[in-house]
């Protein structure tokens, strides 16, 4: 089976529904009903398994576009498995369950569930439920990417500030002059400013040893 990457984040291009599904269900009869509903909605169930199987490894091996879990009473182990999937191979996850406890639903969402449907499966709503799950997943992925970018930018800024401070201290120059020196080095080397700043810090640390 060819590898498939995680669905693209929101805003990355035309939104198309995922087609390949990993179905997790402990009851064969119910799983067959859901699988038929998925096929009617245009999805392909690549693999059907039960909740006792290692979900994170199955997702890594099969690379589905979406994970659907249909289970009476999901437990902590299932939530932990979903957390691993969300961390290592993020995918939209839809959970059908009989448990409608608000605290548990909150925990499921925090574990990576994009759509939680309580109290039974309604085949006619499968397509719309999955569409909502994909939209929520992509929105979350976009927000997470923005947060990661912001953290990276802050970390880079701290490195530049440290390098600038070292230049100011050792060359007895102003902040603007130190920054200009860093920027000139970056331009001369065709390098990113933060990479030059790291090199400056490394040089100063070596000379101080």
Automatic annotation (TrEMBL):
This is ANTAR domain-containing protein. One of its GO terms (molecular function) is RNA binding. Residues 20-134 form the Response regulatory domain. It comes from Natronospirillum operosum. Keywords: Phosphoprotein. Residues 140-201 form the ANTAR domain. It comes from the Bacteria. It holds the Pfam family Response_reg. The keyword NADP does not apply. PANTHER family: PTHR43367, TWO-COMPONENT RESPONSE REGULATOR-LIKE APRR6-RELATED (PTHR43367:SF1). GO terms for biological process: phosphorelay signal transduction system. The modification 4-aspartylphosphate is found at residue 70.
């Amino acid at each position: 089976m060819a590898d498939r990457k995680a669905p693209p984040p929101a805003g990355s291009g035309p939104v198309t529904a995922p087609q390949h599904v990993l179905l997790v269900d402990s009851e064969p009869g119910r799983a067959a009903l859901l699988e038929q509903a998925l096929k009617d909605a245009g999805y392909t169930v690549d693999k059907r398994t039960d909740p006792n199987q290692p979900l994170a490894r199955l997702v890594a091996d099969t690379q589905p576009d979406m994970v659907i879990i249909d289970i009476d009473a999901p437990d902590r182990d299932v939530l932990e498995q979903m957390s691993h999937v969300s961390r290592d191979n993020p995918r939209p996850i839809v959970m059908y369950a009989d448990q409608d406890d608000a605290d548990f639903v909150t925990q499921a969402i925090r574990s990576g569930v994009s759509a939680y449907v309580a109290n039974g499966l309604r085949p006619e709503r499968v397509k719309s439920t999955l569409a909502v799950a994909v939209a929520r997943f992509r929105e979350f992925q976009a927000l997470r990417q923005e947060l990661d970018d912001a953290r990276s930018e802050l970390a880079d800024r701290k490195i530049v500030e440290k390098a600038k401070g070292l230049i100011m201290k050792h060359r007895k120059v102003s902040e603007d002059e130190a920054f200009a020196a860093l920027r000139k080095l970056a331009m001369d080397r065709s390098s990113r400013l933060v990479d030059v700043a790291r090199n400056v810090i490394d040089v100063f640390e070596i000379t101080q040893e």
